[in-house]
C-alpha cells in the first residue's frame, strides 16, 4: 500500500519534471513510509528517511525496508542525498519547509534548481483507502464507547478539566494510542469559545457543555462533538440546539461526491439563517480528518475544494453567543457517491 | 512584564533598522502577549494579534489591552497591518515562517524590504525572569508529587500505556493543565529507544523502565526522567545506572553561568567514557525548558551556546543498548553564578 503511494508521488514528480522531492511534513512522511518519528524523507529513484539517533530503531521497526540515515542533522543528511542523486530539479514542500531551511537547502545545493511545490501529498491523502477508513472507524468507535461510559458517570460538580481527563482516560484504556487532540470541555459561557481549553469551572445543573473529543488509533484520528444538557433544559437552549442539529442533518445530506465544499457549508448556514442564528455560526462547517485531525478538504464559505468518494470529513455547525455559551454538533462522515456514511455514533442528549 | 518584553524586541528592531516584525512562532507570540491560541503577532509602534473568530474571546481574556484582528486569514491580516504601518524594512522569523507564507508576504508587501531574522525572541526567552522560574518550579513540583503517588502504586503487569496514562492523570488532578509532552514509559528493550511511545508491553519483574514525564502549568513546562528498577536488580543494570548517575551529577556541578554548553556535555561524556559507555550515549546532554519543552540553549557536543544565570535546562545523560534497553536520568536545573538549583525532586530507585 505504502509503496504504491510512493509510486504515485514519483508519477507526479515525472509530470513536473522533478528528479527528486524533499518531504518535510511529518504526516506526509508517515503516510508514505509508516515512520512516525521526527525527520524528513527524500524521494528520488529510492527513498531515504533522514532522522537522528533517537529514532534509528523506531525507523527500522515502522518503515522496514526503507533506507534510513540517522547520523547528523535531518536537513544536512537530506542535502547530501539530494546532491548524490544528481537531480537537476528538486521539489520541496513550500507550506512545510521554513524559510530558514530553504536558505540552507539553496546554499547546500548550488547548481540545483529548487522548485517550490504545494500540498500535493496532502491532496493525495484527502482520499482514504479502505485500510485508512478502517482505522478511522476504529478510532471513532473507541471514542464513541469511551463517551458512552463517561456520559453515564457524569455528575454535576466535576470541573471541566477533570471531566476531560476522565474521557481521555477511557479512550486510552479502550484502545486509543492517545486523544487525537486536546479534548474541549466547555461549560456554560465557556461554550462561546469554539476552541476553549478545559479549566477549573465546574459543570453545573442547567449548563450546556460543548464536548469535542477524538481518539487516535495507529496514527489515524477521529473527531466528534456533542453539546450536553446537564439537568433541566431551558427554552432558548433547546431552540438553539435544535437549530444546530437541523443544520447538521441538512449538511450531511448534501455532502456527496461531487458537491462543492462551499455549497455544503452554505446548506448549514442557510438552515441557521432560517432560525436567526447565521451570524453566530462563526467558523467553517468542517474539515478532512486522517493522520491529522485537520486536513484537506476544507468545508467553508471560501473553500474551492470539491468532495470526492473516500474523503473523510467533519460536519460541525455551531452557534456561539458571548456571555451565554455555545452549541456545536459534529459528526465524522465518509463521502461516497450516494448518502455519506456517518462514522461517529455517540448518542445525543436531545 | 510582558510589555517590557515587547520593549526589548522594539529595542532590537531599532538596532536592526527594522520598522516592524512579524512574529509567527506561537510560543513567541505567547511570551510577548499572553495569547496562547493560533495566530501571529505584528510588532510595530503598537502590537496586533492576528487570529480568527475561534480565538476572539480568548485573545481578549489572555492578552487584555492588546489589539486583536480576527476577521480573516492570519497572514492576510498581518499583511494589511504591515502595509498600513508604513515600515520600509520588515523583519520576519525565518525559522518559523514557511517558504509558502514568505512568498505570500513578499507578494502582499511589494516595495517593502523583507528581512529574514533568526531566533532572536527565542534567545531572549532562554533567560527566565522570576515569575517564569516560579511557574516552572510549580510545574516540576506537580510532576514530582504525581510521580511519588504513582510510583507507590505501580504493580508489575501493567502495560506501558496504562502506566503512562495514570501518571498523566495524577499530574492533571494535581494541578497541571496537561502533560508538557507525551510521557515516555519504555520497559525492558524498549528503553533502547530514547523517544519510545508507550505501548502494550507490560512492565514486568526485572525490567528497567525509562520514565520521562513533565507537567505544564500556565503554559510553562517541566521535564524529568527516572529509570526504575522493577524487582531485583541485575549487576549490569546497576552498573549502567550508576555510571549514568555519576555522569549526571558531574554535569550538574559543571553547569554554572559562563560555562560553554559543549563543555558541560563533555563532562558527562567523559564520565561515561570512563565506564566504557560513551558510544551508547547517543544524544545531547540537555536543552532549555520554558514555554516549550525543548528550547534554547542546547547542551550538546556541537552546541555553541553558553550558559547564563536564569537559564532553565535539563541534564539528561543516558545509555542505550539495542536488544537490552536503556537508562536515562534527567534533572531540570536553574543556572546561577554558583551551584545550579535543581528544580526536580522525584526520588531515585537506587
Q: List the domain count of chain A as a whole number.
A: 2
Oligomeric composition of the shown chains:
homodimer
- As laid out across the biggest beta sheet of chain A, the strand order is 4-3-2-1-5-6
CATH level 3 topology of the largest domain in chain A:
Creatine Amidinohydrolase
Number of helix segments of chain A? Answer: 10
Category from helices, strands and their pairing of chain A: alpha+beta
Count interface residues per chain for the largest interface: A-B, 39 and 40 residues
Helicity level of chain A = 25-40%
What top-tier CATH class of the largest domain in chain A fits best?
Alpha Beta
Count of distinct strands of chain A: 19
Notes on the structure:
The structure is a homodimer of 350-residue chains. Chain A is of the alpha+beta class. The model of chain A has no long low-confidence stretch (mean pLDDT 95). Chain A has a 6-stranded mixed β-sheet, sandwiched between helices. Chain A has a 3-stranded antiparallel β-sheet with strand order 7-10-11. The first copy, chain A, has a 3-stranded antiparallel β-sheet with strand order 8-9-12, with helices on one face. The radius of gyration of chain A is 22 Å and the shape is elongated. In chain A, helix 4 packs across helix 5 (99-108), helix 7 crosses helix 8 and helix 9 (235-254) packs antiparallel against helix 10. Chain A folds into 2 domains: 2-125, Creatine Amidinohydrolase, Chain A, domain 1 (3-Layer(aba) Sandwich); 130-342, Creatinase/methionine aminopeptidase superfamily (Creatine Amidinohydrolase). Chain A is built from 10 helices and 19 strands. Chain A has helices at residues 2-15, 26-33, 56-62, 74-85, 99-108, 120-125, 130-153, 160-173, 235-254, 261-274, and strands at 20-23, 40-43, 47-50, 67-69, 89-93, 113-117, 178-179, 184-187, 208-213, 215-217, 220-221, 224-229, 286-288, 295-299, 312-315, 318-321, 325-328, 331-334, 341-342. The interface between A and B is large, with 39 and 40 residues.
